Amino acid sequence: MKKFLLLAFPALAVISTLLLSCSKEDNGAESIDDYLCFTASLDNSRIGMMASEKMTDMPVLEYSLDGKKWEHLYIGITTVTLSRDESVYFRGNNTSFSYAEGQELKFVYFTMEGMFYAGGKLMSLLDKECKKTTIPNEYCFAYLFKDCKGLIEPPTLTATKLTKACYDGLFYGCVNLETAPELPVTELAEGCYAEMFFGCTKLTDAPRLPATKLVAGCYYKMFGECMNLKSISVSFTEWAPKDATFEWVDKVGDPGVFNCPRELGQLWDKSHIPENFEVKN
């Protein structure tokens, strides 16, 4: 199976801190804990956002250090510097953070220096009130945290309705990600989790996958090169369609445990059950 779209190479830009002369005070969400949040675990940790080369349709975002006073975030310009245990919150009313342009995927992504624990709801980037649970567009959050080596813990994924490739490559290359977010949705979309954790070498336990029916490319290379992964739990009963799990456990470490229904065929290779994994029903 071919990758859905070729990636555009991120543009290089100089990031500087922009202090605005005015700020906005309001609380869109019922609780500050609903907003996407990053807490620094080291002094002088920095976070900002960049965009793919020649990306024209930009999302509009705000950030806050206290969840009350909000500043406009200038993508490619604004960077926030935090001391250890300090936090920054993000929100916006948007429809997507990436879009297809020909055979390329244009996307906005976080940049990090230092180490961060994420919290709150990722959906606060689409809805300031943090009430929406439907992802509106295809590729919506694709590669949002691509190569964020400073990300230790992920935010909460509260969407209950997915779209094509909505989380494609979301944590791609997050080599220090220690835990995966829960993935409770049972009705999948084409390519929804493709390459989602590719290269997350510190991940040891995969999130439970409760969907009983697979769709095209849904788990495509999902855990590829997760060399320390030791536990996978699934609920589907057949390996179909064939491209649903294409190379989804390529170069996964061993030994480990694969929890699955008794009806699922036991095939050991990079597109089925990882080699040297013990099957438990």
What this model shows, in words?
By secondary structure, this protein is mainly β. Helices cover 0% and strands 23% of the residues. The strands form 3 sheets. The protein has a 7-stranded mixed β-sheet with strand order 2-6-5-8-3-11-12, with no helix packed on it. Strands 1, 4, 7, 9 and 10 form a 5-stranded mixed β-sheet that branches. Strand 9 and strand 10 (104-113) form a beta hairpin. It is globular, with a radius of gyration of 19 Å. The model is unreliable at 1-25 (pLDDT under 50).
Give the secondary structure arrangement, pairings included.
Elements (H helix, E strand, L loop, with lengths): L5 E2 L16 E2 L10 E5 L4 E7 L9 E4 L4 E5 L5 E4 L4 E5 L6 E4 L2 E10 L2 E4 L31 E3 L77 E3 L22 E4 L17 E4 L1
Parallel strand pairs: 1-10, 11-12, 13-14, 14-15
Antiparallel strand pairs: 2-6, 3-8, 3-11, 4-7, 4-10, 5-6, 5-8, 9-10
State mean pLDDT (0 to 100 scale): 91
Give me the oligomer status. single chain
Whole-angstrom Rg: 19 Å
Low-pLDDT ranges = 1-25
Strand content: 15-25%
Helix-residue proportion:
under 10%
Strand order of the largest sheet: 2-6-5-8-3-11-12
The overall strand count is 15
Main beta sheet strand tally, sense and closure? 7 strands, mixed
Termini distance?
A: 29 Å
Concise overview:
This protein has strands at 6-7, 24-25, 36-40, 45-51, 61-64, 69-73, 79-82, 87-91, 98-101, 104-113, 116-119, 151-153, 231-233, 256-259, 277-280.
